[in-house]
Amino acid sequence: MRTFLLLIFISVFSQANAQNELTINYSEIKEKIENQNSPNYYPTILKRYNNFDKKLTLEEYALLYYGFTFQENYLKNQSEEIELSKLEKEGKYEELISACEKYLLINPVSLKANDLMAYSLYKLNKPESEWRKFQERYRALRKVIVYSGNGLTCETAFKVISVSDEYDVIYTYFDVENIKKQSLVGLCDKFEISPTEYYHSDIIYFDISQKLIRSENLKK
């Protein structure tokens, strides 16, 4: 786990009192973000997002994150996240910044790209104002995911739009060190894990339905 992650406060997530604070309905999200007369129109809130608008609410971040699945670039170039991880391991932070900038033009809600952008700027001793805004954006997107369910069943799974986001939440939010097994159960990824202080169950589900459905539609 990167040293930088020590700077990130890990929110305590108690299974005892967990509540779904966000209700994610893809049909409703699609309707909202495609209404050109609405402040929730995707290009409108994306502009605010790219300007690092501090007034964005958690609900608006949810529209940005899940609404991205209805955008042309969704499912494109996701393999590039592997290259981002490679550059990080090699310590090539200048190159990593450039790569993250390019990838964020394609996928602005990529958890990995936002996280590694913040990390690279931090490692190069850039002003806190430069890396902090990417860190805060990353944390807001991650919070959307963990507020979308409780992970205990497929019906109440955390909703994600990419597989890499599952691992990000498992490792950086719930501080899981050991994944014992992973399997696909219907439209959900099921992980068997070692419980932690922040996630008390040994099973965690992620709803990856939107990615599976959209991928299947592309094949037709």
Describe the structure.
- This protein is an alpha+beta fold and 220 residues long.
- It has 9 helices and 4 strands, in the order H-H-H-H-H-H-H-E-H-E-E-E-H.
- A 4-stranded mixed β-sheet has the order 1-4-3-2, with no helix packed on it.
- Strand 2 (179-185) and strand 3 form a beta hairpin.
- Helix 6 (111-123) packs antiparallel against helix 7.
- Mean pLDDT is 90; it is low at 3-19.
- Residues 1-18 form the signal peptide.
- InterPro entries: DUF4919.
- This is DUF4919 domain-containing protein.
What's the count of strands? Answer: 4
Low-pLDDT residue spans: 3-19
What is the CA-atom radius of gyration, in angstroms?
A: 17 Å
Query: Can you list the strand order of the major beta sheet?
Result: 1-4-3-2
Mean pLDDT: 90
Number of helices: 9
Judged by helices, strands and strand pairing, the structural class is alpha+beta
Q: How many independent structural domains?
A: 1
What general form does the structure show? Answer: globular
Assess the beta-strand content as a share of residues.
5-15%
| N-to-C span | 40 Å
Note the main sheet: 4 strands, mixed
Succession of helices and strands = HHHHHHHEHEEEH
Helicity range: 40-55%
Keywords: Signal
Pfam family, one: DUF4919
Protein name: DUF4919 domain-containing protein
